[in-house]
Design a protein that fits this description.
Length: 426
């Protein structure tokens, strides 16, 4: 039954993709439509926001609500204590460089409900709790490193022979398949811990009307699927990051006041939405996040709202479809998502060849969030124009663009760590 349903979902996904390909793509600046951005510092009733207090009490909640109800969908409140079980711990992992822990964290209050597995590597010689990167990954925790002790994920995974997955399951061949993106030893050497979670533990990434993952466990009585203003998959993944944070607050390896949430691509969209909602994340890093992440919707450059809603109908809430080719009717744009993070630090990262994600639109979101940071008494972005390649702007709203493609490189991590070191306060 599940198998038939899955086949149907994948056929649907294919149809969505071909449908999406018919949508024209803007790749020239001269074809970007004229647009006016909503002002983060003018409330919906027209009141100018002039004080930090007005921002905190009036405008920030207003903007957050629009993103919840119109873009990502509101996630349920998690009630109760987070339940977890340490499945494995090795105080002498990675040839003596690390403490490794694998922890099962429940996503409901029921022990037989869905759960996610956290893989934690922490520097062995640390004198106390350390600053930490919390990250989601695409193919399972066992893909981030060849360490044979990492549990092979048993969750549904996308088929990809390059990643060693078959029949939607991980195989031994997938061990370390994404290690290039995760310089674990270097992260440890610089004094950070890294926490990895497979995003499919929270919600498998295909459109099945939200019958699997966490969604069915939070429906109200008689409800069959989330309503038009309730959580899509990105919201669920972001919510999962907050549940991971609930756990990390209890783990003595981690300094909960120095947690950076980092993600790439759709998981960059996820990290920025997580950072916007959960103020426990003191640093947010979104890499090549593009449409639905840091890029401005109104530019329609590269991937557009129509295109993303057609290809990935499960990522956002159903209300978001109203803004297909109609971005101007949305009372927010993505610079206001950045503004929700103020005064906490965010680093927005682009790649020159990743035009699909609209690097300029990613920079402009950073730029137009500046006024909110300044209102709150911190420097916003220390750049008036888009910086050149490999010239990272390291102010509280940080921005960097490097040569090359849509990807995460070891050299990107060096900048993430510099940025985190600069903005974490002890
Ligand atoms: C693409 C999608 C992007 C980005 C990317 C990814 O197909 O159009 O928005 O999220 O996938 O996550 O790898």
């Amino acid at each position: 039954m599940f198998h038939r349903f899955l086949v149907l979902s994948l056929v649907l996904m294919y149809c969505n993709m071909t449908e999406a390909q018919k949508i024209p793509t803007i790749y020239e600046e001269e074809n970007v439509p004229k647009y006016t951005l909503p002002d983060p510092l003018i409330a919906e009733d027209g009141t100018p926001i002039k004080t930090a207090k007005q921002w905190i009490n009036q405008r920030r909640p207003e903007i957050l609500k629009i993103f919840e109800e119109q873009v990502y969908g509101r996630a349920p409140e998690f009630k109760g204590e987070i339940q977890f079980k340490v499945l494995e711990e090795d105080k002498n992992a990675l040839g003596g460089k690390a403490i490794r822990k694998q922890v099962k964290v429940q996503l409901t209050n029921k022990a037989d409900g869905p759960s996610m597995e956290l893989l934690i590597y922490s520097p062995k010689n640390a004198k106390g709790p350390v600053p930490t990167f919390l990250t989601l990954n695409f193919y399972g925790n066992h893909t981030i490193h060849t360490d044979p002790a990492i549990h092979l994920s048993e969750s549904w995974v996308r088929n990809n022979s390059a990643k060693g997955t078959k029949d939607n399951r991980a195989t031994e061949k997938s061990r370390g398949a994404s290690a290039e993106r995760w310089p674990v030893e270097r992260i440890l050497e610089r004094g950070f811990a890294i926490v990895a979670i497979y995003y499919g533990d929270i919600d498998p990434d295909f459109d099945d009307d939200f019958q699997n993952g966490v969604h069915p466990h939070y429906l109200s009585e008689g409800q069959k699927k989330p309503g038009p203003d309730q959580w899509g998959s990105i919201s669920a993944w972001a919510w999962g990051l907050s549940r991971a944070m609930d756990y990390l607050e209890k783990d003595s390896l981690v300094d909960p006041n120095r947690v950076a949430v980092m993600g790439h691509s759709r998981l960059g969209k996820t990290s920025i939405w997580a950072g916007a909602q959960d103020t426990r994340f003191k640093v947010t890093i979104c890499n090549n996040s593009g449409c639905g992440g840091a890029a401005l919707n109104r530019r329609r450059f590269g991937e557009s709202v129509r295109r993303i809603n057609t290809s990935f109908p499960h990522w956002f809430c159903d209300n978001y479809v109203q803004y297909n080719d109609n971005e101007g009717d949305l009372a927010v744009d993505q610079h206001m998502l950045v503004s929700l993070i103020a005064p906490r630090a965010i680093l927005i990262c682009s790649a020159e060849e990743d035009r699909w994600a609209d690097p300029k639109g990613e920079f402009l979101s950073a730029f137009h969030a500046d006024s909110v940071y300044r209102l709150l008494g911190v420097e916003g972005i220390a750049a008036k124009e888009m910086p050149g390649l490999d010239q990272p702007v390291m102010s509280p709203i940080g921005y960097k663009i490097r040569p090359g493609k849509h990807n995460v490189l070891a050299s990107d991590w060096e900048v993430y760590m510099d940025f985190a070191n600069k903005h974490f306060t002890k």
